[in-house]
Design goal:
With about 400 residues, this protein is α/β, with parallel strands linked by helices. Helix content is about 40%, strand content about 25%. The chain is built from 16 helices and 20 strands. Strands 1-2-9-7-6-3-4-5 form an eight-stranded mixed sheet, with helices on both faces. Helix 3 links the parallel strand 3 and strand 4. The protein is globular.
């Protein structure tokens, strides 16, 4: 991750009073389709919820994360896992071998206490491109925690902290947790096998059955055809009349851009994008798409108060929430986990949550976008879209073209 970003207005002026006064929304809970959901928009609340999940585990604790840092928060979570293992809980941790800086040495106390640690390990072949971008914690096969957050100090800091990310995590209890457990176990078996073949993980993604009902567990990843995550969100975009999205990285392919513009023309589309990120090229990549979205009637906002890492899509009465961004990598390449919940009351509540961020946003009007859209910025935005969508985040983070 890059250096902490300092909030600023789009034209380089000082942040306005609403931006400076912004504080994370309060946690809230809601029942939806036989499931109990609790949402944590605040960083300290995310850490408390994760630690409470681990401390409350009696039989098993499963965790998978993309980024896991060997910092104060990482040590606090690790020590809670060690304490769980010592009281007889079966603990399994799967980290991405590319994204996580904490490794086997860091987790030696957990291994010594009887826990299991392994990496989803990239190789210098086609598999190297794949990231285990999922964020999963499951206690006793009955309570799960998902979302966009990682285990690092930045993700558990409040948005008012210059280090902090604006992000969203949620806990869920209900029948879908059994499905989450089953997916985690398949992922862990593959990760533990040093001879596992890449085609096996593709087969897992391809054959994942989301099942019937209003609460569906969607899995994204590299496979022939579309994964369940990419297929379902694409289908809903084609049919929806209302879209509300708050998205950290937004650089979808032209086909999905077209669906969003259709929604904007025939219904309504509200998009909240980051003005600040650890990877400025992702901001430029999204801005490259604004002109046609605005022409179609979409409302576009940029969140100014902090770096934004939230991944939330509401399409009519369906809420998509989990680890996936709305970009080429999350749609077609990374391993992702997303819940899709069809529930009108939940959709309304999540739209209201998005609304709580708008006072700290700049509305991107056609006039403002035109004023920004000189030839040099257009060139940088288009180059950013190419870097993010075609090359790789690792490269684009270093070559952010001064954005």
């Amino acid at each position: 991750m890059g250096a902490p970003a300092t909030p600023s207005a789009p034209d380089g002026q000082a942040a306005g009073p609403a931006v400076a006064a912004f504080r994370d929304p309060a946690p809230f809970s809601i029942e939806a389709q036989g499931h109990a959901l609790s949402f944590h928009p605040d960083g300290p609340g995310r850490l408390r919820a994760l630690l409470a999940l681990i401390d409350g585990a009696q039989h098993s604790m499963r965790m998978a994360f993309y980024i896991y840092a060997a910092d104060a928060s990482g040590r606090q979570v690790r020590d809670a896992l060690v304490a769980a293992a010592r009281r007889g809980v079966a603990v399994t941790v799967v980290l991405d071998g590319f994204g996580a800086t904490a490794g086997e040495q860091f987790f030696a106390p957990l291994i010594a206490a009887g826990g299991c640690f392994c990496c989803f390990q990239p190789r210098w072949n086609v598999r190297y491109l794949i990231r285990n971008h999922q964020k999963i914690a499951v206690a006793d096969e009955t309570r799960a925690m998902l979302g966009g957050f990682n285990v690092a100090d930045d993700y558990f800091a409040p948005s008012a902290d210059p280090r902090g990310w604006t992000d969203l995590a949620f806990t869920v209890e209900g029948p879908v947790v059994g499905r989450i457990t089953g997916w985690f176990d398949a992922l862990a078996r593959w990760s533990r096998n040093p001879h596992a073949r890449f085609r096996a993980i593709r087969k897992l993604v391809r054959e994942w059955a989301v099942g019937p009902g209003p609460v569906q567990l969607l899995i994204g990843g590299p496979t022939t055809g579309l994964s369940s995550w990419a297929r379902h969100v694409s289908q809903d975009l084609r049919q929806a009349h209302r879209l509300d999205m708050m998205m950290a990285y937004f650089s979808p392919p032209p086909r999905l851009q077209k669906h969003i513009r259709t929604i904007a023309r025939t219904g309504s589309a509200r998009l909240v994008m980051p003005a600040l990120s650890d990877n400025a090229a992702t901001v430029g990549a999204a801005r490259a798409l604004y002109a046609r979205l605005l022409d179609a009637g979409a409302q576009v906002w940029e969140f100014e108060a902090a770096k934004m890492h939230t991944k939330l899509i509401v399409l009519d009465d369906r809420t998509y929430i989990g680890s996936a961004n709305f970009d080429m990598r999350s749609l077609y390449l990374n391993l992702e986990i997303v819940l899709c919940i069809r529930d009108a009351a939940l959709a309304d509540r999540m739209r209201a949550l998005i609304g709580e961020y708008l006072p700290a946003c700049t509305p991107i009007t056609p006039a403002l976008h035109h004023a920004r859209r000189g030839w040099w910025n257009r060139l940088r935005w288009r180059a950013s879209w190419f870097l993010v969508s075609v090359v790789d985040y690792t490269v684009s983070r270093r070559l952010n073209l001064g954005l």
